[in-house]
Amino acid sequence: MTRFVFALACAIVASIAWAADTTVTLKGHKFDVEQANDPASQQRGLMFRDSMPDNHGMLFNFNDDQPRSFWMKNCRMPLDILYFDQNYKLVSMQQRVPACRSDPCPAYPSEGPARYVLELNAGVADKLGVKPGDALTVAH
User: Is residue 58 within 8 Å of residue 45, measured between CB atoms?
Assistant: First the structure.
């Protein structure tokens, strides 16, 4: 029964996973993003997902600027993790972060205080030529 409940929960999450509610633009490229605005959605992030459509991502919104650290626990796909300050300027990034397949999972910290974090498919930041200081535009 437990296995069935877990499978059902994963199917439900997958079916609603890409109900993007926001568009962001980075280096002239638009991405449809899910927002993680509360502690529960921030903790869950992109866990248990096997893939993400091109031009999609997840935007984490925090209430303050501070050093952030992300890990890939239960995330099944590699990601680029981009850290932005209160003005949506890129502070730092961790590129091509691999999925975590065994505990303990390593942490991937920002190099400075960040308020927003954008997760994209691995390799996208490199493809776009993203660098610190680049601006993110958010359209709600």
Answer: yes
